[in-house]
Structures are given as structure tokens and as C-alpha cells.
Design goal:
The protein is an alpha/beta fold. Helix content is 33%, strand content 18%. Strand 5, helix 2 and strand 6 form a beta-alpha-beta unit.
């Protein structure tokens, strides 16, 4: 799950307008100076981010990103030269097997600790790309509004947009959030063609996985287990695992939960009897330790996934909004087919 802040720690949300669909309103205004036209782009440009219209007079040059999925969105778009660096813990798995792996060697790893205002000021950031519960939180006072007061702009991860209902998050489906951010950032950084090429490629990969996935009554019931023993942390309809599970041919048992990452009771898991459990692999507790807990926890003994030992492991970066989501769908679809055969 988004690592810096547990959902229970999120403070009161603010109201934002809902976005719909994967597209985002993008406009460009005429009349700008030569410096703003650097790179051939048309500036200023305006994009809609989590219900707020944001205008950029030029492409940001010193972006600081928080967490692996957000960082890799920038890398996938080829925007390393626009980055001051990234912040993430060192428990995010293999960073060397993705097409954009060179971004990690070209960009400074600023910190393995939680992102904060002092860090981004020291980095002379002109934009922070983070998300609610992916770096931004009122509890520590690290918010877009707080950054604005010290002259730093922000872009909020669309998976984390707030819908105005308490702590709940999510105004669009997770894959649509990925496509929205790619398209928005393509406009902001004048790499629209690159963004559209990625979106087209990702849509094709997802469609091919869906074509081979189980349908209807054959879809296995799937539960996402992030962490926690007293109460499991899991994914609702507005976190990445929902789209990944559903498009891979699974029936996400928490699809009626209109939230992103949140806790539920074990009794709910038992009652819905998942046939497959997907483990989110990250953090101090290893995937194998999580598996051993699930297999030995007595209340789960009669749950189909435990009884039949049908447990799948995906990495954290596969399950939060990131350019790895389409490959995760393809991988999980293959796993679900193998388990059903």
C-alpha cells in the first residue's frame, strides 16, 4: 500500500470535483515569450489535475517525485532531465528489469525517508509529483497548499484524488488514472506523442490479457492482502489492485468498497471466501512471512484460497499506479489461468 501514511492516519479531506473517463481537459493559450517556447512546446498550457485546473508557463525543470510508481511515470515519459531527484524507501523490489531502468542511474536518489518540505527546498524543486498517502498528508503538513506557500508547484497522483467523502479517495478507475497522468504530463512537458504512444501500447497489452482471461462465472474470487494481522489492509475499488485483478480475469471481492487502500475485518474476508489471495510484496514483512501467516491463521483455515494453497505474489510497484500496471495484469492473468487449470 502507499507507504508513507496508513489510511487510518489520513486527516480530513477537502472537496474536489470528480473527473470522469481517462481523458483530461487540456488547453493551450496563445501568446508567450521565446523562453516559454523552448523545446518547441506551446506555453502556457492548462491541465486538470484532481478537479483543479493548473496552468504551467513552461515545463518544470527540477521535479522531485515521491515513491516508485510516481517516479517511473516520469522515467517512462523520458523526463529524467526535468528531475531534481526522487524519494523512495529501498524496499521496492527489483528496479532493473523495466524498459526505463536507466532513469535510476541518471537521476539522484534524494532520500530513503519520508519526503518533506525541507528536502524539496534543498533540492530547489519547482514541482513535487506525489499523491495523497503517497507523500502528501495534512498530519505532517506536507500538502500542495503548503508547498504553494513556499513557491513550489505540485502535481497530485490521480489514483489518490479525493472525492470529498471524508478520508475516501478515488474519482476514476485506477488504469484511467494512469492514462490521465501520462496524458497530462505529456502536455505539461511537451511530450504528448510519447505519452500517447505509451497509452496505446498499454491499452493493447491490457486488451490482449483480457482476451485470454476468464469470463463470467469462471472468474475466481480474489482478495488483495497488503499487510496486517488484527485487520487486513486491502484495496477497494479505487486502488490499483481493483483494475489489475478485474482485468486479469478475477472477481475482486472488495469491489463494492468505494475507497482506495483501507482496512476491513477478517470476518468479511471469510464470508466472501476468496479462491485466490494476491500478496502485496513490500516492506519489512516479506512475502513469504505474509504467506505463512495467511496459511496458519486459524480463522482463514476454511477459506478456499488457503485450503487449496492458491496464493500469488505481486510487487508493490505492480499494484500502485505505475507504468508497470499493464504488465502486472498480463502476469496475474497467466497466474489465474494456471491456478484454474
Amino acid at each position: 500500500m502507499p507507504r508513507p501514511v496508513r489510511p487510518a492516519a489520513i486527516a480530513v479531506a477537502f472537496t474536489v470535483l470528480a473527473l470522469t473517463g481517462c481523458g483530461a481537459e487540456v488547453t493551450a493559450r496563445e501568446g508567450t515569450d521565446d523562453a516559454a517556447r523552448a523545446g518547441g512546446g506551446r506555453y502556457p498550457v492548462t491541465v486538470e489535475n484532481c478537479g483543479e485546473k493548473k496552468t504551467f508557463e513552461r515545463a518544470p525543470q527540477r521535479v522531485v517525485t515521491n515513491d516508485v510508481g510516481i517516479t517511473e511515470i516520469m522515467f517512462a515519459l523520458g523526463l529524467e532531465d526535468h528531475m531534481a531527484g526522487y524519494v523512495m524507501p529501498d524496499d521496492k523490489g527489483d528496479l532493473t528489469s523495466v524498459p526505463w531502468k536507466d532513469g535510476y542511474t541518471k537521476t539522484e536518489w534524494l532520500s530513503k525517508e519520508q519526503i518533506n518540505k525541507e528536502l524539496v527546498l534543498d533540492a530547489r524543486a519547482d514541482l513535487v509529483f506525489a499523491g495523497w498517502n503517497y507523500g502528501f498528508n495534512e498530519g505532517d503538513g506536507f500538502t500542495p497548499a503548503g508547498l504553494r506557500r513556499v513557491g513550489i508547484d505540485s502535481y497530485v497522483l490521480s489514483e489518490s484524488c479525493r472525492n470529498g467523502q471524508g478520508k475516501a479517495r478515488g474519482v476514476m478507475s485506477p488504469l484511467d488514472a494512469l492514462y490521465t497522468d501520462l496524458r497530462n504530463l505529456g502536455t505539461v512537458f511537451d511530450v504528448e506523442d510519447r505519452a500517447e504512444s505509451l497509452i496505446t501500447s498499454f491499452r493493447k497489452e491490457v486488451a490482449e490479457a483480457q482476451a485470454k482471461a476468464a469470463k463470467g462465472a469462471d472468474r475466481p474470487r480474489v482478495f488483495l492482502y497488503d499487510d496486517g494481522q488484527d485487520k487486513p489492509l486491502t484495496s477497494g475499488a479505487f486502488a490499483g489492485p481493483h483494475d489489475i485483478i478485474t482485468k486479469a480475469g478475477g472477481d475482486h471481492i472488495m469491489k463494492d468498497l468505494e475507497d482506495s487502500w483501507t482496512t476491513v475485518g477478517w470476518e468479511t474476508v471469510v464470508a466472501r471466501d476468496p479462491e485466490v489471495i494476491v500478496i502485496n510484496n513490500y516492506g519489512d514483512t516479506t512475502a513469504e512471512q505474509k504467506r505463512k501467516f495467511l496459511m496458519s491463521y486459524k480463522p482463514l483455515a476454511n477459506v478456499s484460497a488457503v485450503r487449496n494453497d492458491r496464493i500469488v505474489v505481486l510487487d508493490y510497484v505492480d499494484l500502485v499506479e505505475s507504468p508497470r500496471n499493464p504488465a502486472a495484469i498480463r502476469s496475474l492473468a497467466a497466474e489465474l489461468r494456471d491456478l484454474s487449470s
